[in-house]
Amino acid sequence: MSASDVLRVAEIFRDAFNDVYRSRGFGPVVTDDAVGAAIAGTYRDLDPGGCVVVTVDGEIAGSGFLHPRGKTGGAGPITVSPAFQGIGAGRALMDEIAARSDAAGITSLRLIQDAFNEVAYALYAAAGFVGREVLLRASFRSRRLARAGSDVRRAHRGDLARIRAIENDLLGIDRPQDHQLLLRLGELFLAPDGMLVRVVRGNVTVLGPLVAGSLHGTLALIAAGTTDLPPHSDVRLMVPARCDDLVRELLVDHGLEIHSLCTYMVRGAWRDARGYYVPTLFPESG
Ligand SMILES: CC(C)(COP(=O)(O)OP(=O)(O)OC[C@H]1O[C@@H](n2cnc3c(N)ncnc32)[C@H](O)[C@@H]1OP(=O)(O)O)[C@@H](O)C(=O)NCCC(=O)NCCS
Question: How far is CA 85 from CA 36, 40, 91, 278, in A?
């Protein structure tokens, strides 16, 4: 993918996601044209060897991204223009990403896909990915709490080594470059057994990645990361279904609204996840 491809990549990103979401009865999911270009631009800096396009008769038909992080890696987003879907462009992208992943020595490649998208599931399963977890794409409204997360504090540059160690320990993912990026784009919080990133854009706050060793730590991080927002802000996150105690707490205490389900798929090595993990679609490296 070259710099001059980014505009077309962004248009396809917008059209492909809006098309599949509309066809399943959801509203358009990419409403800001700048989003696709911002994602592609950031990934071209972060993972220069992992950004690829597929062409049909010389025309860009789609794009894909690989995010190598040592032995683990992430893949996505993968998008093919609706005009070119169903003729093998997605397969060509996944073959290339799998080949680059293998060449980079990645033994455990992960991605997140919308569970309603059976075409994407089939494509990834054919490329060797296995559905390992169900994630709830969900949101709740923020509220001010009388007392929130007394053992949680803001993290700063000097905490990055600790944050790296927490992810390494609980997830087996080593990604210091993503923590640097997230510190520039958002805010980091640290608990005794975990960490949280939040990114606030207007009235929408995205939580994640969140990694914690206990339910208590997870709830304390969520409380600390939301109590200072304007009341009723839209707080979005992906909750692992296996963390049934967290799902119940969020449903009962925060009025969690579940919008759809996603699948966490892994190609290669997988050990059951430890602790509480709220992954993100940006950066899509784990
Ligand atoms: C998902 C997406 C990238 C697929 O791209 P594509 O170019 O249409 O995919 P391809 O034509 O290469 O391959 C689709 C494969 O799935 C298979 N497939 C499709 N529907 C299927 C089904 N219901 N069951 C089993 N297999 C199915 C096809 O037969 C084909 O397999 P083949 O390679 O053996 O022929 C594209 O549809 C897209 O951009 N969707 C919107 C954005 C999106 O959701 N991206 C994924 C984000 S996680």
Answer: 19, 20, 10, 31
Written out in words, the top-level CATH class of the domain with range 138-278 is: alpha beta
pLDDT digits (tens, 9 = 90+) for 2-53: 999 999 999 999 999 999 999 999 999 998 889 999 999 999 999 999 999 9
Span from the CA of 91 to the centroid of ligand 1 (angstroms)? 7
Q: How many Cβ atoms are within 10 Å of 64's Cβ, its own excluded?
A: 25
CA of 117 to the centre of ligand 1 (A): 9
Pocket lining: 22 vs ligand 1, CB cutoff 6 Å: no
Q: Which fold has domain 3-106?
A: Aminopeptidase (3.40.630)
Residue spans of the domains in the chain: they are: 3-106, 138-278
Q: Distance from the CA of 96 to the center of ligand 1, in angstroms?
A: 15
Whether residue 105 contacts residue 89, with contact meaning beta carbons closer than 8 Å, is answered with no
- Ligand 1 pocket: which of 123, 263, 282 to mutate (most atoms within 8 A of CB): 123
Q: Is the separation of the CB atoms in 125 and 90 below 8 Å? A: no
Helices (H) and strands (E) in the chain, counts: 8, 13
Residue 77 binned pLDDT confidence (cut-offs 50, 70, 90):
very high
113-125 mean pLDDT: 98
Query: What is the residue with the minimal CA distance to atom 11 of ligand 1?
Result: 86
User: Phi/psi of residue 167, each to 5°?
Assistant: -65, -40
